[in-house]
Amino acid sequence: MSGSRPKKRKNVDGAYHPRRDPSKKRKTNPNKENTNLNKAAMRSQTQQTITSPTGETITVKTSCVIEEKMVDGSPDSKAVFQKKFIESNNNNIPTHRNITITERSKNGSPTKVKTVTPSKTEMTCSSKIGGMRFFSNIPANNPISPIKKLPLKFSIEKDETSQDIKQCTVTEKTQEITIKLDELKKTLKEIKDNCGTRICSQNSVMVKEGVNAKKGSATKYAQTTLFEKNYNWEWLHLVAYSILGSDSQDEKNLVCGTDHSNTEMMAIEQEIKFLAQQYSDGFKLQIKANLIPNTHIATKIEYTIVTDDFTFSLDFNAQQTNKPHLSLQKYVHNLIQALVGTCKERKLVKEKGFDVSAAVPKTDQVYHIFYKKN
Questions:
Q1: Are residues 103 and 241 in the same domain?
Q2: Strands (DSSP E) along the chain, which ranges?
Q3: 169 and 138 in a common domain
Q4: Which secondary-structure segment (H or E) carries 80?
Q5: Has residue 181 got a pLDDT over 90?
Q6: By three-state DSSP, how is residue 23 classified?
């Protein structure tokens, strides 16, 4: 007899093999933290050295600057924020370097920087998330350039792959929820109870009724409708699975974007639990995705966090082509923590007359973390 013998799901006595019994769940560690950080790390660049075309080993260097309007308050408050942010970057990000801005675009956004170290290493913008600009000496594509569209040889309506996906009749998708720690804990319990397995895949949600989920690939959908076949696409959650659990698997909460854009979004999603711990009464999360007409393909995703102390907005390029460096997540983490810390100190000033001057740098910094647009 040729060929492999088909595997039996049950033993001869009608019982399931122990390893195939669907009633028995895989064991999980109840003390294990949320794995989003690990997932984001696995999807990011993590190297601290690169090899140049000439074979030379080069140390990876990164930095970040912030549009000044992202941090509200008096000059003293901004100085406190600056001190907290710089200290966190210097202490927690091995690739971080303090920099000065050397080149700007027509609207005043920085495009090139150099380190303040004796090497004066030049770095270019590798990623843009709202008012945050991330720089690296790793060669990268222009972070704000959209992916090249192919000349349409067929209409989207007639393409077979597009016909498998549910029709999109809107030009944007929006979500708004209130985040509370108790609700996040319920979601985490749901995920643990299901051993991390989702009750349905994004593919199965996005295909029409009766269509096999295998035909719901975001990559095939993007490549056979509009875009060149050089990138991987995914169904991106507007509100993350780690926040909503099974309720996040909904067509209204899913858009098509590149895998690198999805990784960048994980950076801010990781901070939701931290903010929920800081604001026991909850805070609002508002998200809007702008779509290419007649498709689920997003161009930009606007992410806004509204707390009692501040409103924090970031927008993501849903067609990002650069694989983000792990430092990007750490910069976002440091920014959120510095922002919350500054707001707490501002409250102390109002309520108890706390002297904030001790936290303000006494001399001007020779490097930049803020920039202003024209």
A1: no
A2: 49-51, 57-59, 62-67, 99-104, 110-115, 122-129, 132-136, 172-179, 233-237, 254-258, 283-291, 298-306, 311-317, 370-371
A3: no
A4: helix 75-92
A5: yes
A6: coil
Q: Into how many domains does the chain fold?
A: 2
On whether residue 166 sits in a domain, the answer given is: yes
Examine the domain organization and report whether 98 and 134 are in the same domain. yes
Distance CA(322)–CA(95), nearest Å, equals: 18
* Pairwise CA distance, residues 110 & 125, whole Å: 8
| Vertex 141: Cα angle to 136 and 145 (nearest 5) | 120
Determine the structural domain holding residue 56 and report its residue range. 48-143+366-371
Residue 200 lies in a domain: yes
Look-up: residue for tokens 């590149």?
258
The neighbouring-strand residues paired with 316 are: 129, 301
CB atoms within 10 A of CB 21: 12
The per-type count for the chain, helices as H runs and strands as E runs, is 10, 14
DSSP 247-290: GG-SGGGEEEEEHHHHHHHHHHHTTHHHHHHH-TT-EEEEEEEE
**Residue 11 main-chain phi, psi, to 5 deg:** -75, 175
Closest Cα partner for 48 from 95, 88, 114, 96?
A: 95
Same domain, 221 and 303: yes
User: Does residue 328 sit in helix, strand or coil?
Assistant: helix
Q: Tell me: the pLDDT tens digits for 121-177?
A: 999 998 999 899 999 998 876 665 656 665 444 344 445 566 899 999 999 999 999
Report the pLDDT averaged over residues 40-63. 86
pLDDT exceeds cutoff 80 at 295: yes
Please report whether residue 338 resides in a domain: no
DSSP secondary structure code for residue 47 in this structure: -
Residue 193 Cα to chain centre, angstroms: 25
- How crowded is the C-beta side of 11, counted as CA atoms within 13 Å? 8
**How many Å is the maximal CA-CA distance in the chain?**
87
Hey, what amino acid is at 164? D
